[in-house]
Design goal:
By secondary structure, this protein is α+β, with helices and mostly antiparallel strands. It folds into 5 domains: 7-150, Beta-Lactamase (2-Layer Sandwich), CATH 3.30.450; 161-272, Beta-Lactamase (2-Layer Sandwich), CATH 3.30.450; 278-401, PAS domain (Beta-Lactamase); 486-663, Histidine kinase-like ATPase, C-terminal domain (Heat Shock Protein 90); 672-791, Response regulator (Rossmann fold), CATH 3.40.50. The chain is built from 22 helices and 29 strands. The strands form 6 sheets. The protein has a 7-stranded antiparallel beta sheet with strand order 8-7-6-12-11-10-9, sandwiched between helices. Strands 2-1-5-4-3 form a 5-stranded antiparallel beta sheet. It has a 5-stranded antiparallel beta sheet with strand order 14-13-17-16-15, with helices on both faces. Helix 13 runs antiparallel to helix 14 and helix 14 crosses helix 16 (529-546). 29% of the residues are buried.
Amino acid sequence: MRPAASGPLRLLRTLLHADHALVFGQGASGDVSLVAADPPQRPAPPFALDDPTLWPPLGAPLFSESADAIRTSPLGSVLAGAQGTMLAVSARAVGPDLLPPGTTGVSLYLLWQAPHTPPPHVRSELHAIAASMQEQLEALQHQAADARAGATLQVLLSALPNGVVLTDEAAGTAVVNAAAADLLGMAPGVLPSAAVAEAIEGLHKRTSKVQEVRPDRPLLVAPAGGQRRTWVWDVRDPVRRTLLVSALPVHTAEHDGHLWSFSDATAVRAAEAEPATLLHKIEREQPKLGELLTSAPAMIMLLRGPEHVIEFANAAVQKAAGGADLIGKRLFIDYLPALHGTDFEAAHDAVFRTGDGWTATGVHLRANDLNGRPDVHVNVSIQALRNVDGSVSGLFVHATDVTAEVMAVEQLRQSQKLESIGRLTGGVAHDFNNLLTVIGGNTDLLLAELPPTSQAHADATEVKHAVRRAADLTHQLLSFSRRQVLQRHVVEVDPVVRGVEKLLRRVIGEHITLDTQLDSNGATVLIAPGQLEQVLVNLAVNARDAMPQGGRLSIRSSVQGAPSPTADGRAQPPVLRGTHLRLLVRDTGTGMDADTLARATEAFFTTKPVGQGTGLGLATVGDIMAQNGGAMWIESTPGTGTGVWLALPLAGGTSPVPEATPPVPRPVQSGTLLLVEDERGVRHITKRILEQAGYTVRIATNGTEGLRRWHEQASQSAQRFDGVITDVVMPDMSGRAMVRAMRAEDPQLRVLFVSGYAEGGLSDEELAGHTAFLAKPFTADALLQEVAGLLGHD
């Protein structure tokens, strides 16, 4: 390019009366290029200097009048044949990056061609002149930098999407970038400010509405004062759009003008004016969404950072935490330290580390994990929260309390287990009753034949007593499985308590003292004896578990006349407002709080660890009391033990004394009976007892055979069977089904059902009419008495 002349060079050359002034740049490789000259010179190629002495040392001025030195210097290379006096000043560039790439230094050459010579003061003031020349070199460098900065500014202005106009009042010009030029309908660049002002005025006239925006505080203040003003212009044509226009006064030492900015706000204004946009929907629904999150029944938390700091916790979480302030706490360090380092924390860490979600069902959080709060089972979902760049910033945790569902499943499992045990127990008791029936029946036959004073009679009597005790045991087993037909008897309570006392001592253990004070004075109640014993055993087991370190279990009995309030002031149940028998079973154990006491009688509710309790103890006691017209209530407080009150209406009679007495000879009876029994031993002894009493007995081994024999009897003889004795549960056809088929033809049929248990019990319809029931094991007297009563032989 052609070296340009500069103001500073021209001024310097004029003041010193020099003929030429040139500036050279030296590169790192040693090459020299002409940077500027006055007067302007023709383009010159790089100068390769072989002799370093021809180039003045950096910072050292050189005065030379040698023609050879001038000719061989860069100055002489440009100005062929130049002669005279030469002054050269060199300096390192103030900013090498402001000169051509690779430039490391600059030198200024002044030439006075002969016969011209430097003014006298130049020689006498060489150092002052050298300093002035150094300043000129630096000025040249700054001029180059300003030129390049101006070019860079022009590029930036052209690239801006917003329109920008910068006016220069002193120069009467304005810089207009491409976006502003397109908006104003003119070419970009440096234009006369009057033309630009006219274009802005024309744009203003095309607006249908002008609204000035007044912010609460100044958006920008110019260095020398003045505030930005901003307007909204709705432009009608050539296209309809909304502009955000601002004007800022710029008054500095170097510049005096205005900076205009034009921004297209059409899309923003459309979004604000359209209520159906997603932004407005979110803004409108945000309070509702926040309320839903806060009041949701599920537990919701927002956690931030790798330490899982709680940023948000809804009301369900706060309730689970007992109202504690959780915001800002670290979930596993500050709030739930017992879970620190567990798999549960590892799951949170993994989601934060990988961003992959994690879900789990039925997570069991124990009391030790929850700072002593009750155990819970939760379904948990953890999802990652991400930044704009996709990195994970936190976690969204959603947990649902499914404790009730888990407990329901556990209750079903326990119920199925109890059902299985009940079936097994019922089956064993049924078979055992058949054996006891055979043993007891044969014992009765022996006692009838043996002399009452003989040792054999005494031995047989002991066998009969053992059969009765074994029968009581099977009745208790059937009571547990609920497969017996309950037969209530008038029972004296105090002897029953004394009879079960030995068993209770074994149940509670030696570390607990059993204290009984019975004062019911022979009062009786109507109940199945086995049920009363079961009640006492269940309460003793609960008391034992409440006194792991030992204590006292007391049982009190009394008769209450007038109604009296309970210890907590509640009224007694109406059934107990009259005279009734009352039992109190009290322990000195841990006791129960109000919440536990309120649920104590719920089926399957238990405070014991999983696998150590079914939650059926108190529920069964309450059920037995209700079955027998009685009531139960509980008094308990933590640390003072528990008292269970039982109340039963009086029977108004005396209990029979179950003493074994010699069989009383009965008159010989007559009649034809059909005996249907699948167990051979029971069938044989029953047939012998009946035949010895004078009855004619036909036998069948199941219901199908019994029905066939019944039909044969009816067809072969004019007289039907006088009665049918049948087991209830049999293979092939049950006794029930057989009797229904017979009574369809003979509604007056007399039937005695005999069974160790009845599956679900016999219905009132099945026991109606000429029907009786005899439980196994039975004695010969009991069998003959039931048959005689059924046939009307009493």
